[in-house]
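New to this. Please check both lines:
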Amino acid sequence: MHLYSYTVDSLSKSQDLAAAILASSTPSQISAACSSLDSFLRSHSPDQSRHFFSLAFPALICKLYGFDDASASASPSPSPGGGGWIDAILHSNDADLAARVFDLLSPDGVLFHLISAVDRQSLVKYVFPTERLPEWARLLLSAGKDCQGLNALCPVFQGKVREGGSGKGSSSSSSSYQIQLNVFEYFLYWFAYYPICKANSENSSGATIGAVKSKAVLKLENWASSIPRLSHAKRGNELRLECDLYVRLLYAYLRAFVPVQVPGTHQPYRSSLLHYGYGNDGSATMRAEFFVDALVHYWLVDNDFSPLPVNLCKSVGLSFSLRSVLGETPPSSSLGEVVKLLVKYLNWSANVSQEGVERVANTNGGRFSPSSFDMKSGELVASVYKSSELAGSWNSCIQRPLYRFILRTFLFCPMGTSIKNAYQVFSLWVAYIEPWKTTMDDFLELDAIVGCSGKDGNKEVGQNKQCGYLSSWEGYVLSNYLYYSSLVMHFIGFAHKFLHTDPVVIVEMVLKVITVLTSNKELINLVKNVDKVFHAKQAGSGKAMLSSLYKYVPLIREQLQDWEDGLCESDADGSYLHENWNRDLMLFSDVEDGGQQLLQLFILRAESELQANSGVNYSQNLELIDSLKEQVSCLFGCYAARSISFTPEKKQPADQMRDEIFTPRKAGNYTFADVKYKGDWMKRPVSADEVAWLANWFVCLSCWLNETLGLDRAENGDASSKWSYVEVSSNAANIDGPTETMNTVLRAICSWLLMLVATVVGFMRKHGVRVNLRPLASKKVVTVLLLSALFSVVKKGVRMFLGA
């Protein structure tokens, strides 16, 4: 009877709590709901909390993020923020309410105490809805094949992909796999999904939020398969950081689950039940990997058609066919700020860990080895060693996803839209290639808001360091070399493409990138030397003075083909870059489409744009161009470009703005219209001597044939050895009758034809030859074919007439 009364009491209180949470829209209601939650959580043990996690916890997630709720029978008039607590706090600008909700959801709060206790006993499991997974994982699970490979390749899915149906009420009824999570993982999945859902909701123009039918009881098994959608919410520029609850929680979770290990300093949340001590709890590293991997796959990978390293997928026999589905889809917008916080924090972790290693090494005569110290310092050294090792793993974890995230933003940024999102991603890129500038000062405001008390020790580490490139960062630059070389070339193509949208901003962005490269002599020499070694290795010659860099060439070559897998500028109108040019590094090349020539052309175009649109800031624009010329000259060691002087054209009215990327402008005897198209020649703009619809049809047909025959990718080394012999049946000599003889001859002929086709296809792959049917769309060819057909018809008609 005693157990039964506890069960009934817990059920009724959980139902009342869920109803109170779903009904909370105003600041006073949210505050009251937080008080009720705190009281309930403190008065119930983990084994009495099953009903809470079945009823109230899903309602809390639903209301916190503003998802449309399946059981919301509360107030019919939503709050100004759209019903979600995060949006309501943003719009109310109430710092006290933000602190109240933050205390409830903080890693050291009572909710996470209960979550940790419940997960230790494995009392609750959730099935996460497949339609709310990252786009590539959703497509893979919906297809129902190669799903078990996720368990081995991704920490965020490791041990969580189970076979056993799609779950009750799920819209993905065709899938036989599902994602099973504990409470901690379930909460962080929704936490990582929120910015994606918010960005997609804000970007959908004119989209109406579908109403969901109300239900009296919110059950665990069908709520996990519901389809939440986010209400619209817009953030004002005047809102304080204290009221940005999501950023506060993100930073607090990073500090708690991905701690920065600084010797001799207090670590926030390390004294709580989470126990993130190295060597004491092996699950701490797994939990950190899970959290970082969840953010990476939701924010950076998401709709990428090549979500995992190519060689890794081949090693486990996993193949993706997502390019035809996802295509040239840009990443979700408005993620720049949260991704930048994540990247800067991980870079700061590497920065602090590296400095901790140097401090310990300096105090022990420059030696650093856990086995080379006495027992007193052994624990300290071991913690520093493991911290630096873990910090380095974060960089390897985000290298490829971040690179493709930035590159896809530049390549697939749609024309005619604001470059605000591209500028945010650009700032993220600059922060990543300058990790030495990330210090403790960047997080002081967040530390004060979150309430971290471990700043004193960190301050000694973070503020004494010079904010500039040092030789100790050479390994970081080499392992991320494509960020300093190939990605710069892609960005130059982006700058050419969008120069007309806002010339001043685009020029400032290009100037910033070049300034980063030329900010330190050691840095620019390292980047240039690696480029020399890369091409010297390619040419079969080398120099003894650069021999130490040769070992990085295979890694850079592999990264170049893997990180840019399937990404090129061939479909970007006006691009200067060849398709599949990512097989080489072109930044310091002096060829026509090399970095030096493209930057010189960019300076000419930018100068003409700024002069044509000159106004009160004319002198400032000239100074900007002069600064760019100076930095480009410093980068290449030559004069950047000749100055041009001409009478600026009158600014065109807004209704006569050009739709094309480049407008021919005269600069002396030089006309920019003379620039030849440098993209995929088969996909060039339709010319006057072609039939437009026929050319487009032949291009699509050619692309389909190239993709079907595998001509759009390089030949594998073992591809030519598949048909090395023909096995002849033992009964080949016993052929009776003409019918069986004809069948045998036909089979032999078909076999030889297939072998011939395979040989031709292999030859075409090896030499980069592709099918191109576009010449058939020429008006001359069409005219000849039409005249031939007409002549044939007339000839037959004449014969029939004469014969009659």
About this structure: The first helix runs from residue 2 to 23. The mean pLDDT is 74. The beta strands are 126-128, 161-163, 177-181, 666-667, 670-671. The chain has 30 helices and five strands.
